[in-house]
């Protein structure tokens, strides 16, 4: 799961600097940097605040951060088939 990378990419797409976005979320820039580099796992309340500030539902952030290793082997083929379409739909709907 690449949650930090997804947060970073969406933050940048929305035109926020790390410093201003951290302030908007009520966390430090250092902590946001650690989250975005996947070196720290934020708690649920922090993730809810981040998703709110990105204007993206938390389950959508989780889905966008999934990679093949997160999916059980017997379901990977289905994931490979639906993942591009779902991501495209999410990107269109949420302007990610």
TrEMBL record:
<dbReference type="InterPro" id="IPR001387">
    <property type="entry name" value="Cro/C1-type_HTH"/>
</dbReference>
<keyword id="KW-0238">DNA-binding</keyword>
<feature type="domain" description="HTH cro/C1-type">
    <location>
        <begin position="7"/>
        <end position="61"/>
    </location>
</feature>
<dbReference type="Pfam" id="PF01381">
    <property type="entry name" value="HTH_3"/>
</dbReference>
<dbReference type="InterPro" id="IPR010982">
    <property type="entry name" value="Lambda_DNA-bd_dom_sf"/>
</dbReference>
<protein>
    <recommendedName>
        <fullName>HTH cro/C1-type domain-containing protein</fullName>
    </recommendedName>
</protein>
């Amino acid at each position: 799961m690449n949650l930090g990378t997804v947060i970073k990419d969406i933050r940048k797409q929305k035109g926020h600097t790390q410093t201003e976005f951290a302030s908007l979320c009520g966390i430090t820039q250092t902590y946001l940097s650690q989250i975005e580099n996947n070196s720290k796992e934020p708690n649920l309340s922090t993730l809810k605040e981040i998703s709110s500030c990105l204007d993206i539902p938390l389950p959508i952030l989780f889905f966008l951060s999934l990679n093949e290793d997160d999916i059980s082997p017997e379901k990977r083929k289905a994931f490979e088939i639906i993942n591009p379409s779902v991501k495209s739909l999410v990107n269109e709907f949420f302007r990610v």
